[in-house]
Each structure stands twice: as structure tokens, then as C-alpha cells.
Design goal:
With about 90 residues, the protein is an alpha/beta fold. Helix content is about 30%, strand content about 25%. It is globular.
């Protein structure tokens, strides 16, 4: 099974991603969640996920910075989501 980490500052969206998708049907399991990029980076190093689904705009550290700082040491596929139309 692929290990998935969800990094999203909006709790409702984060929980929605976790609970409305049939992860096991796609050979995945959600191993953790984080509410900002700094916490997400800690979870990446701790959990070593195969897939990280992240928002871009978050407090403390944005998703792009989190990916940039962790992708060389921890190999994973990043899926970037955002509700904003401009950055």
C-alpha cells in the first residue's frame, strides 16, 4: 500500500480529503495529516510517505517551500491543490 500524507490548513477540507475518498480501493492508506508546511515537513521525515497531497497557501510554511526543502532527502510524489486562482 502507498502511504499518503495530507497537508492542508483548512480542517474541513483536510478531513474531507481523508474521509470522502476510498483510499484502500486505490491501494493507499492515509498515514498522517498536518495543518501547515512546517508540521507537514516534520511528518514527511517521520512517516516517509509515498504521496504528499498539499495546499500551496498555508501559515508558517507554504506547500511549495515544504516540497522544496524535503524532496531531495525524502522521495515522494507531490500532489498540489489550491482554492486560489492567483499566487
Amino acid at each position: 500500500m502507498y502511504k499518503v500524507l495530507i497537508v492542508e490548513d483548512e480542517k474541513l477540507i483536510r478531513k474531507g480529503i481523508i474521509y470522502t475518498f476510498d483510499w484502500t480501493a486505490h491501494d493507499c492508506t492515509v498515514v498522517g495529516e498536518a495543518c501547515n508546511g512546517a508540521e507537514g515537513m516534520e511528518k514527511i521525515y517521520q512517516l516517509m510517505p509515498d504521496i504528499v497531497i498539499t495546499d500551496i497557501t498555508m501559515p508558517i510554511m507554504d506547500g511549495l517551500t515544504m516540497i522544496e526543502k524535503s524532496i531531495d532527502e525524502c522521495i515522494y510524489t507531490a500532489i498540489i491543490i489550491s482554492a486560489f486562482d492567483e499566487f
